[in-house]
Amino acid sequence: MFSFRREIDFTGYTLIVPSVSVGNVPQLAVDVIIETLKLEPIGQLWHPALIPVIGAPAFEHEPADFVSTSAELYLSEEKRLAVLQLRAPLAGNAQQRAFLEQLADFVRDRHFTQVLLLASAFAHEKSNVRTAPFSYVANEMYERADDAGSRRLAEDGGRWTKHPGGVIHGGGFGAKLLELLTDRSVAGVLLFMYVSEGDNTTEGLMLARMLHTISGERLLPAGAQESDFRWPKSWQHLFGSSRSQVLVLSAAEAAQGFGAGMAI
């Protein structure tokens, strides 16, 4: 499933996994984390559930000849942090199930300490408009762990609301993977944000900042402020290049000419 550039002992590591969700907010948040920490691309994932994707380097610190693919694992040995990035949705129900099973097995067998799952949900599904847009679902192992992040999550009721249960609409595979991790006695939490579809770069940045707090402030270099999170270069043309002023002026002139013709 994984092809590593070098062998790593993941014992004691935290793994961050984005669920492909509404607005791609989890993937955007992961982009921010990888770019800010300049994480090392350590491995690629290969599986029939992954739709093939290939492209140029997504981050400035990657070599110019680096090839981005559907799923890659990034690493910070200093922070004992591994981050999975998915650039395409999973295909096929049976293949998706097999992918999630194998990923959960990998986490258990490589002795990761915990998994932080990121997701997003449809804003219109949020039932309480008085609360912040952040909710979470944690398994018993995560809640029981003597971890700064789990304590912050439980104590920060002003920003994080415990999900009462039920389907997380638009949240992708996050809830299912959390269930599989729980079956394997792996500590895990699903952190999600209610969003509307559109330009979700702001929400991606916001979720990264919130995760920074939950993870024990591990997502920024030492001494950095939250304002120091970096946008990757791959965000520059998410919605195409900016419009040409020449075309704008030409369209305006054409409209004026059409109006004058109608007046005649």
TrEMBL record:
GO biological process, any: proteasome assembly
Matching Pfam families: PAC2
Domain of life from the UniProt record: Eukaryota
Gene Ontology cellular-component annotations: cytosol; nucleus
Keyword tRNA processing: no
InterPro entries (alphabetical): Proteasome_assmbl_chaperone_2, Proteasome_assmbl_chp_2_euk, PSMG2_sf
Keywords recorded for this protein, A-Z: Chaperone
Function (record text): Chaperone protein which promotes assembly of the 20S proteasome as part of a heterodimer with PSMG1.
Family to which this protein belongs: Belongs to the PSMG2 family.
Subunit field text: Forms a heterodimer with PSMG1.
Protein's UniProt name: Proteasome assembly chaperone 2
